[in-house]
Amino acid sequence: MVNLRIGSIVCHLFYSDFSKIEAKQLVLEKIDFDLRRNTKNTLDIMAIKANEAGIELNCHIKPDVPTALLGDPVRLRQVNVNLLGNALKFTREYLSLYSEL
Fold first, then answer.
1. pTM passes above 0.70
2. 6, 88 Cβ separation under 8 angstroms
3. List of domains in the chain
4. Residue 24 and residue 20: Cα distance in Å, rounded?
5. Mean pLDDT across the stretch 15-29?
C-alpha cells in the first residue's frame, strides 16, 4: 500500500509539473533548506522500495558540498525520487547516490 501511495503522488507531481512546464507556468520556490536532510528524507522513502527489491541503497554527499541551500526542496526531492525510482527498476544489487559540485 505504501508504494502505491508514493507512486501515485510521484505520478501526480510529474504530470501536473509537466503541464505547468508546457504552459510556462511552473514556479520554483526559493526557500532555505538543508540538502542533507532533504536527501535523507528522499532516501527514507526510496529505501522501502529498494529493500523490497533486495537492493542496498546508499548515499554519500561529499563534505565540501554546501548543506544550507536556497531553492525548491520539494522539486529537488521530486527529481531525486524520479531518478532513484528509475534506477531501481534497472538495478539488481547496489545503488549509490552521489552529490557533487
1. no
2. no
3. 28-99 (3.30.565.10)
4. 6
5. 67
